[in-house]
Amino acid sequence: xxxxxxxxxxxxxxxxxxxxxxxxxxxxxxxxxxxxxxxxxxxxxxxxxxxxxxxxxxxxxxxxxxxxxxxxxxxxxxxxxxxxxxxxxxxxxxxxxxxxxxxxxxxxxxxxxxxxxxxxxxxxxxxxxxxxxxxxxxxxxxxxxxxxxxxxxxxxxxxxxxxxxxxxxxxxxxxxxxxxxxxxxxxxxxxxxxxxxxxxxxxxxxxxxxxxxxxxxxxxxxxxxxxxxxxxxxxxxxxxxxxxxxxxxxxxxxxxxxxxxxxxxxxxxxxxxxxxxxxxxxxxxxxxxxxxxxxxxxxxxxxxxxxxxxxxxxxxxxxxxxxxxxxxxxxxxxxxxxxxxxxxxxxxxxxxxxxxxxxxxxxxxxxxxxxxxxxxxxxxxxxxxxxxxxxxxxxxxxxxxxxxxxxxxxxxxxxxxxxxxxxxxxxxxxxxxxxxxxxxxxxxxxxxxxxxxxxxxxxxxxxxxxxxxxxxxxxxxxxxxxxxxxxxxxxxxxxxxxxxxxxxxxxxxxxxxxxxxxxxxxxxxxxxxxxxxxxxxxxxxxxxxxxxxxxxxxxxxxxxxxxxxxxxxxxxxxxxxxxxxxxxxxxxxxxxxxxxxxxxxxxxxxxxxxxxxxxxxxxxxxxxxxxxxxxxxxxxxxxxxxxxxxxxxxxxxxxxxxxxxxxxxxxxxxxxxxxxxxxxxxxxxxxxxxxxxxxxxxxxxxxxxxxxxxxxxxxxxxxxxxxxxxxxxxxxxxxxxxxxxxxxxxxxxxxxxxxxxxxxxxxxxxxxxxxxxxxxxxxxxxxxxxxxxxxxxxxxxxxxxxxxxxxxxxxxxxxxxxxxxxxxxxxxxxxxxxxxxxxxxxxxxxxxxxxxxxxxxxxxxxxxxxxxxxxxxxxxxxxxxxxxxxxxxx
Length: 890
Fold this sequence. Notes:
By secondary structure, this protein is an alpha+beta fold. Helix content is about 45%, strand content about 15%. Strands 8-22-21-20-9-17-19-18 form an 8-stranded mixed sheet, sandwiched between helices. Helix 21 (about 655-660) links the parallel strand 21 and strand 22. The longest helix has about 40 residues, at about 670-710.
């Protein structure tokens, strides 16, 4: 373990200069933890971090708290110090509730900040490990690949075709080529300023455009070039969503109406009774009753906690708008590999190609490892496996290349077909124009120069210049293998020193000192096909079935062959509808033809990432709300264009993650479906909370306004409204937010994205609920006054009935479909805390003399309580009747 005054400086030997991760130990976890404590997190501080005092100060500035303080001042002027102190006490009570709400929101946002920081692949204790970029420490070994965002300034130990985009630091738009450091003493190497080709340094915040490499971290936080110029603070920034805009407009309108009514009440009460101080209290009470201060708070809390809840289901919502949009998705466009399947490749079949047979395929040449799991590999496939491995990275990242390495380690270990001592001279990477890659190798004795290539069968056939007759042979075999759900790759070889085969066309002169710029210049010979299996995720079939029940269409977009895609579709229960559409066929269509075909096409095969953008735009043009998955750099435009872009968290690039609205942390399709379900639940609960707020404010406002207008004894005073807020505030932002999803949430069609939060049905139901409560408590109030029970009796009866009706409204609004007695089995603990707490406080203020006097109540006997309960039961029954009425059912 390191001491607090020590720094860790790992030493490397010359073996690290070769690209062999097996020799890299990296830091130990204990050393990394010590350095993290010593140097802190690898992130610049957020300018918007909020502490306890900041949250408290923001809460105290809320209009409700200011009105409570104003009411306390009026009571103090009237000489009622006790009432004044009670109102000030309510300020602290409600501040505590607000702190709890804000604290939950802030913790949720902090958790999202941690998840949304760029990820880094590091080597610790000889193991590759994906961590948050903020946890990278000095001396860490970074493994970089195309599409990664570099998390710290580092020196390159080894790289292959590595280039980065440093425009963020230098303004230079062209990618910068990188080379590995030639120094054996990495401690003595000093970081240089960014800019220019062939430097052995990468910089925090820059983007890997091409290739891969290993680098040792030399600077973090403010010591990086990014830190020096104060850019790229990684944090969750507040984003105004459509819901929040809708709430802002609504609050402005209601605020104007509330202000006008309050002024009118003060003037009317003061002029008609001559008691201006009581008129001011009546105005303050009305303002507290109808000011819509909870509306924007509830939207903010729901979206923040909703994003946090979604993250608990392995989906990170990078933008709040994604939480709103999730419930509207009508189409999910998904990759096959890694999303519908486990992305755990294993070589299943080997087909060595025999040029001597030009007329038909002999299936006897096809070797299925599943049928010969305990047998040694036959000699006929040794060369095919050998060049599969040579065409892959020595220590691979890609699941397919890992499968090749595992196959070689199992069957060809200690044979002449594995070449751990050969030297890699050059790599020709995969490109959108040629889906094949090649490695040029030099043997240990320097006498052999071999080129190994692998890629799509079409690309390898092109490299090998196969005549049409031979292409027909291997194409038929590819179709046969793909029909079994296998992913098929082709393999080829070439030699520099040996004369090219006689059947190949003439090639330009090449030698080890002058390698060609393109793969086509090598005299490749076709070796055969490799079929890899990738098991389907066990949760996918049920998730797709749930999508269909929810009215969501599933479209598979894959680079595999149509036969492979169809086999996987059958396994997971994906409805094919029309014929499979290939990428080549898609390119041959104009937009109108594609718009017509896409209505009945659920499988796109042999598609390249660039075609995803056209598919997304066509679906959007036909009125669909599209969710699209992607993981590569080329997927970024489609992810940005889709209403819900979903990037892969495990195998995805940082570019894809930054372009997407959601990040799938476990790359599992079923997590997308759970996120959609949560998105629908969040919207449902938000609408319930808004309907509840509208409904409960109607009787409070009515009982504050009507007695003042008709010169009747005031029922609602600031202390009573403050008490109601002890129930209302947690009910709308804690209880209803935590309500579980309706049983029918995934049995209905997606919500129309144009549908407002306050539709006519929602608003109408809320008004009818609130009007019903007002009518009931107004009746009880009028009867009490008619029977000359007195002001204290009337207020106690009315207020108690209002509390019970409010609790009934919370129970009823917890579900838009089920009867309230079913809610008694609800697992929502917050519901019972609020209901139980409300009843307990009601008993306290009714039957403890000190509190009863503070609230200006009389003693209620059993008959009085029965009347209040009867009023509450009628309210609850009224709510349930409304919910079951088709015209008002939400």
